Amino acid sequence: MQKLNKCIYIVYMDCLQMVFKLFPNWKREAEVKKLGYKVHGDPFSTNTRRVLAVLHEKRLSYEPITVKLQTGEHKTEPFLSLNPFGQVPVFEDGSVKLYESRAITQYIAYVHSSRGTQLLNLRSHETMATLTMWMEIEAHQFDPPASKLTWEQVIKPIYGLETDQTIVKENEAILEKVLNIYEKRLEESRFLACNSFTLVDLHHLPNIQYLLGTPTKKLFEKRSKVRKWVDEITSREAWKMACDQEKSWFNKPRN
């Protein structure tokens, strides 16, 4: 009788553990249906990862929908009905359809300002203006050379194309000037906009992550303040999740 009771107890505990393992998925599926968020993109795309990073910082569920960039799916219907410019990602929140990754991140951060990481500094007009200014600096000063360097050294080799070292050299020179300014800024502030992690820092992550795997890594490493900043923002758990395509994309529950 004691052996029978022990067997029943073991079976019961095994079932209970299984339920606990499955519960997060049930909870996540329910939240996906409740929020209705959909992300059309590619988990390796820098712009898609920018949006995924915000969703993970805010601990929000979403439905990932793969757009096959290699086959040109983003340049044909029905995707063009979502974004006539033919670029990923596209974010759907019910009747709201957004493209341009930085606009999407700001929308999510504002709608869920009281949840998860506080990514928008709304304490005053001055702090918000400073944050906006640095988001513009990232988009217009940092991103152009960083994106070209990512394209030449990371994306082109994937497609069997040869890296143009002249373009690499030209854009490293441009990026160096930007990082010199960042180094001075980071001497007086822990992060770029203020002393807390914000969308400004997050927007830099996709290109930085790819460039750390290229010779351009040296530009970040030889500036002590920039190196410390890069180490801190790339080690965030939400960013690690965004970069893990199995967890953040392919194995997520569907509706």
UniProtKB/TrEMBL annotation:
This enzyme's EC code(s): 2.5.1.18
Q: Which residues form the GST C-terminal domain?
A: 124-254
- GST N-terminal domain span: 35-116
The cross-references to Gene3D superfamilies, in alphabetical order and at most eight, read:
1.20.1050.10, Glutaredoxin (3.40.30.10)
| Main EC class the enzyme belongs to | transferase
Q: Which residues form the signal peptide?
A: none
Traced from the root, the source organism's taxonomic lineage reads:
Eukaryota, Viridiplantae, Streptophyta, Embryophyta, Tracheophyta
| Stated family | Belongs to the GST superfamily. Phi family.
Supply one GO CC term from the record.
cytosol
Q: Which GO terms describe its molecular function?
A: glutathione binding; glutathione transferase activity
**Alphabetical keyword list:** Cytoplasm, Detoxification, Transferase
Keyword Transferase carried by entry: yes
Pfam assignment, any one: GST_N
**CDD domains reported for this sequence:** GST_C_Phi (cd03187), GST_N_Phi (cd03053)
Record's catalysed reaction(s):
RX + glutathione = an S-substituted glutathione + a halide anion + H(+)
Protein name listed in UniProt: glutathione transferase
